[in-house]
Amino acid sequence: LRKEADAIEDPAAAAARGEFARDLQAALAKRPRQLSPKYFYDAAGSALFDRICELPEYYLTRCELGLLSAHAPEIAEHMGAEAEIIEFGAGSLAKIRLLLDALQGPGRYLPIDISGEHLAAAARRLQQDYPQLQIQPVVADYTKGLRLPPRLHRGTRRIGFFPGSTIGNLRPDEALRFLKQAAALLRGGALLLGADLIKAPAVLHAAYNDAQGVTAAFNLNLLVRANRELGTDFDPSGFAHSAFYNAGQQRIEMHLMSLRKQEVGVCGRRYEFVEGETLHTENSYKFTIDSLHELATHAGLRRGPVWTDKHRRFGLLWLDA
Ligand code: AVI
After folding, report:
1. How far is the CA of 1 from the centre of ligand 1 (A)?
2. Please, what sign has the CA dihedral across residues 66, 68, 70, 71?
3. Is pLDDT above 70 for 235?
4. Which among 60, 100, 211, 289 has the fewest CB atoms less than 10 Å away?
5. φ, ψ for residue 150 (rounded to 5)?
6. Mean pLDDT across the stretch 107-123?
7. Are 266 and 244 in contact (CB under 8 A)?
8. Which protein residue's CA is at the shortest distance from atom 1 of ligand 1?
9. 221 lines ligand 1 (CB under 6 A)
10. Whole-model pTM above 0.90?
11. From edge to edge, which strands make up the β-sheet containing 33-34?
12. Which keywords, in A-to-Z order, does the entry hold (predicted)?
């Protein structure tokens, strides 16, 4: 059955699976063991992330939605009419709705996401609610060289939207590369960037160690996904979710920690985990407004207005490209 399914798998899915297998093997072969967080987002992982956004401890989404709805008219004014909006890592397309409600008919909306099924379903729902809007979903890994369809009209302003502090999941060198790429793609327009700010470690810790265990399920789903897609034999009950604030690096680290000595098979190779050994699955960097401006300036973006909540938990930055 597996062979038959492989035979009819579309080439893009097969290539993605091959990349996942190679990256997982490379991650397990080195020390410390670390894998890109992009592998969290299969359909189940994307649904779990949507649940994380609703958790009482996970203030990021609520804060950002609050900022977007409070300042949407002002943001819309900066965007101007007829601009096209390009959202990087668009997920379930909830945040853009706040801007769309304030904008008078953007030219076009291009949501970019790595999870094709999730994006297609979200785009269909959005289209139902905004029938006049031209939506053109792009399934791509926006951290790699990105090619976009040509501008709608010559001179159409492109506004990038990179919310959710997803920038924090990139390594600092990747974040800089991404911003440089965004500056080039958006030249003449701007980037609206949402980022989580440094705060009391206890608040950060709670956001990634929720009482309902949704973040733990999100982290462990990586192993379930590997078993399903790659035929690995991870025992998810043999691993525990571990998340903590690394103050020196100004980041939350998420790991999957082996609860015992065990061996795992990945595409014909076996890898040993000793008790307590981890697979580092995600970094979530936290910033200051100054550190974000410094990064953006380095990438060739120019600082514009900043919106933040009264506790300065989250920042929304306008950066001219
Ligand atoms: C998508 N990203 C910004 C989330 C974050 O907070 O770093 C992913 C996440 N990981 C655990 N909880 C949420």
Report:
1. 35
2. positive
3. yes
4. 211
5. -60, 160
6. 88
7. no
8. 166
9. no
10. yes
11. 33-34, 278-285, 251-258, 239-246
12. Methyltransferase, Transferase
**Residue among 49, 170, 197, 244 whose CB has most ligand 1 atoms within 8 A, to mutate:** 49
**Closest Cα to atom 4 of ligand 1:** 166
Three-class SS of the chain: CHHHHHHHCCHHHHHHHHHHHHHHHHHHHCCCEECCHHHHCCHHHHHHHHHHCCCCCCHHHHHHHHHHHHHHHHHHHHHCCCCEEEEECCCCCCHHHHHHHHCCCCCEEEEEECCHHHHHHHHHHHHHHCCCCCECCEECCCCCCCCCCCCCCCCCCEEEEECCCHHHHCCHHHHHHHHHHHHHHCCCCEEEEEEEECCCHHHHHHHCCCCCCHHHHHHHHHHHHHHHHHCCCCCHHHEEEEEEEECCCCEEEEEEEECCCEEEEECCEEEEECCCCEEEEEEEECECHHHHHHHHHHCCCEEEEEEECCCCCEEEEEEEC
ipTM: 0.99
Ligand 1, closest atom to CA 165? 3
User: Which residue type does 95 have?
Assistant: K
Q: Is the CB of 283 under 6 A from ligand 1?
A: no
Q: Is the pLDDT of residue 150 over 80?
A: yes
Amino acid code (one letter) for 108: R
